[in-house]
Specification:
binds guanosine-5'-triphosphate, alpha/beta, Rossmann fold, 8 helices, globular, 28% helix, three-stranded antiparallel sheet, binds magnesium ion
Length: 247
C-alpha cells in the first residue's frame, strides 16, 4: 500500500454535528423521566429504575433534514429534596421535556410550578414539550388527553403522550423540541452565538492522524467559518426525519 493510501485511511470524522443543544428533563418524581430518556438513548426500557439522585447526563446525536444535532440531555431528580441542586442545571437550557404521569393527577397538578422554574432559569427562547408518560396504562388514566392538550395550548407548550415501557412516541418529544429550536434559529429569534441561548455551533472538524500520531484539524466551526451559509432552509426540516444513535 502506498503512503498516500495510509493517509486517506487515517482521515476520520471527529465531530460531525451542526448544533449542540442543551435539554433538561423535568417533572415530578416517578413520572418516568429516566425511563423515557433511557429509551431514547438506548432504544430499550430501563428495568428497575431507581429515583434519580441529583442529575444524570447523557447525549445523543439526531438528524433533522440535513442538520446533525447533538443533544445534551440533563435528567433531573423529581424529588423535592433535590430541587435546589437540579434548578442549577436549568440555566441556559434551550429545551425542556416536562413530564407527568397520565395515571397520576398529582403529577399533572404541579406542572405550572415546574414550567415557571424552567422559564425563569432556562434560555429566553426555551422550547417546552409537555409529555404525558405511561400511555400504556390506559385503564388507570387520571388525566385525559384533551385536558392536557388544553393546558399545553394555554401555556404555549407542545404536547404529546408517550410510553417508555412500549417505546411508543419516545423519540417525538426530543425531535419536536429540536425542530422547534431550529425554526427559531432560522427565523432569527435565536442566535446560537449568544451566551445563554442553550445552543452552540458544532465543529465539523476532520481529524487527520498521520503515522507519527500528530493531530491536525482540517476545518473550523461551520457556523463561524461560513456564517453566511449557516441559515437553515425550511425544506431541511421536513417531517421525514431520520436519526442516528450515538453518544
Ligand atoms: N407502565 C409504565 N411504567 C413506567 C413507564 N415509564 C416509567 N415507568 C415506571 O415508573 C417508575 C418511575 O420511573 P423513573 O423513570 O425512574 O421515574 P423518574 O421520573 O425518573 O423519577 P425521579 O428520578 O425520582 O424523578 C419505574 O417503576 C418505571 O418502571 C411507562 O411508560 N409505563
Ligand atoms: Mg429519574
Amino acid at each position: 500500500m502506498a503512503i498516500n493510501d495510509y493517509d486517506a485511511d487515517a482521515t476520520e470524522l471527529l465531530e460531525t454535528y451542526d448544533f449542540l443543544m442543551k435539554y433538561i428533563i423535568i417533572g415530578e418524581a416517578g413520572t418516568g423521566k429516566s425511563c423515557l430518556l433511557h429509551h431514547f438513548t438506548h432504544n430499550s426500557f430501563k428495568e428497575h429504575s431507581q429515583h434519580t439522585i441529583g442529575v444524570e447526563f447523557s447525549s445523543r446525536t439526531v438528524k433533522l433534514g440535513e442538520k446533525r444535532i447533538k443533544l445534551q440531555l440533563w435528567d433531573t431528580a423529581g424529588q423535592e429534596r433535590f430541587r435546589s441542586v437540579t434548578r442549577s442545571y436549568y440555566r441556559g437550557a434551550a429545551g425542556a421535556i416536562l413530564v407527568y404521569d397520565i395515571t397520576s393527577r398529582a403529577s399533572f397538578a404541579n406542572l405550572s410550578r415546574w414550567l415557571a422554574d424552567a422559564r425563569a432559569l432556562g434560555s429566553p427562547n426555551l422550547v417546552v414539550v409537555l409529555v404525558g408518560n405511561k400511555s400504556d396504562r390506559e385503564d388507570e388514566r387520571e388525566v385525559e388527553w384533551a385536558e392536557a392538550s388544553r393546558w399545553a395550548a394555554d401555556h404555549d407548550v407542545h404536547f404529546l403522550e408517550t410510553s417508555s415501557l412500549t417505546g411508543d412516541n419516545v423519540e417525538a418529544p426530543f425531535l419536536l423540541c429540536a425542530r422547534s429550536i431550529l425554526l427559531s434559529i432560522e427565523s432569527g429569534a435565536l442566535d446560537p452565538e449568544k451566551a445563554g441561548s442553550g445552543v452552540s455551533y458544532g465543529d465539523r472538524a476532520l481529524r487527520r492522524v498521520n503515522s507519527s500520531s500528530r493531530l491536525s484539524f482540517g476545518s473550523l466551526s461551520v457556523g463561524r467559518r461560513n456564517r453566511g451559509s449557516t441559515r437553515l432552509k425550511l425544506k431541511d426540516l421536513v417531517p421525514g426525519t431520520s436519526n442516528s444513535r450515538c453518544c
